[in-house]
Amino acid sequence: MCWTRREIMEVQMPIKERLVVSPVKLWRKRRRESESSSVPALFGYEAQEREVYNRLKRAAVAGESTSLILCGYSGCGKHLLLARVLERLEREKEVPDYDVVHLSGEAHADASVALREVVRQIAARTESHRLASRYVDDLKVLVDELHRRRAEESAPLLVVLSRLELFASEHRQTLLYVLLDAIQSKEGCVVVVGITSDRHVLELFEKRVRSRLHNVHVSFGHVDARAVLSFLDDRLLASEETPYAVALAESWTRVKASPEFARELEDAIAVGMPVAWHAKVATLAVAALAPRAPLLTVEGWLRAVNDNSPNRSANWIKAIAALKPARLALVLAYLRFERDDKTDYNLDLAAKELAKLRQLNASAVCFHDDVLLKAQAALISMTVLKLGKKTARADARALEPATLRYAPVRLTGAVSLEDLFTALRQGALDCPTVLRQWVLQDVVA
Fold it and tell me: Which GO terms fall under biological process for this protein (predicted)?
């Protein structure tokens, strides 16, 4: 039996959306929509989810200040679990809604940068504050916001500190002082959630911080094969009962029953591959579905496992890190488009965004149009970029400048975008700080 491309896409797209979830995007999406979006379930961490849910619900209802540390290996689902808990709380009418401020230790470890980002996110939600130009003014805005929530008996401000261990690297930890002082003060109203993979993170902080950041410690261990299979079943099985969806489910059952799949799963569990890794393998397998190969196969799954091997991504990241400045700037601009879920982008849009960045920060490098055109052609010939369908058969070097400038492109699927973001956060991509901050958090200070 044959299926059309539309039938495949109707089943394929919801599956890919469940597999690839950005918690930060989910928080932003909930603020734009009247109804909560569905956050996929996690498996193997039911006790951790119950603990975080109960703590945050109690804090929201009673207006209590508290702190939590979510600790587990990278990719285990700490951010996703928190996003799922927040969605559950938003669906309960008797629980006041949290306003979430998200900071990352990779971009906001410096106290002044972190404080400016907190004020920016507060101002974007409340529309009651103007961005100040001085550090003390930013500090006053934050303190006033915490006092206002206490006076109005609102839900506490929820501050999420990703890569908590990196906040300890700065000598001046003023932001943490303010937040943790507010936890113990009767005038403040704040919940601080630290997310880290370092189980000894508290030992990195000063005693003043360490003594106030230990309210609740939630640990995430490695999941077993049963939890991984439950996770994959939940993500890969379509909800509708169309003929193609049924056939796809049957093909997944055959893949799971194969000894090759069992061996790969056993090896992945033995070496401690995170849930996020299994999700990326499934994403690659689903993305390869097409009219000529519409169903999951053992060979296709093993190919996805091989394509998602750490060495393969590492080689691509090394190649991208070695790109010339103009080429690297374009890759980062396109990575930023992917972060914002933009699927229709081209060189013209990237050039305009880079020009805006130059206006915001004088340290950003300005590239001439001819340099960007040559860089674009080189990236396509190197297969770092792929052209849209209409121009895919054309030779990039032979394209007219106008065509090359406006032709739609996408970053190659040979390297995981998540791995690129991780490399950027960890400093594996050697690029100017202003570009790095621009891609990760829109910070151009």
Answer: DNA replication initiation
- Contact (Cβ atoms closer than 8 angstroms) between residue 313 and residue 416: yes
Question: How high is the pLDDT of residue 56?
Answer: 92
Half-sphere exposure of 245 (CA within 13 A, CB side): 15
Strands (E), 97-170: 99-104, 157-162
Domain count of the chain? Answer: 3
pTM as predicted: 0.68
Do residues 391 and 244 share a domain?
A: no
Give me the average pLDDT of each 10-residue run along the chain (445 residues): 74 74 54 51 87 91 86 86 89 85 82 80 66 67 73 78 83 76 75 88 79 80 89 84 87 94 90 85 87 89 84 76 91 86 84 89 86 90 76 54 84 73 80 85 51
Cα 229 from Cα 314, distance rounded (Å): 27
In 3-state terms the chain splits into helix, strand, coil percentages (rounded to 5) of 60, 10, 30
Q: Where are the alpha helices (DSSP H) in 340-392?
A: 347-360, 369-381
Domain interval for residue 275 = 224-308
Per-residue burial over 175-209, b = 16 or more CB atoms within 10 Å of its CB, e = otherwise: bbebbbbbbeeeebbbbbbbbbbeeebbebbeeeb
**CA 370, CA 321: separation in Å to the nearest integer?**
22
- Amino acid letter, residue 123: A
Residue with tokens 């008996």: 153
What is the pLDDT, as a whole number, of residue 20?
Answer: 66
Same domain, residue pair 105 and 212: yes
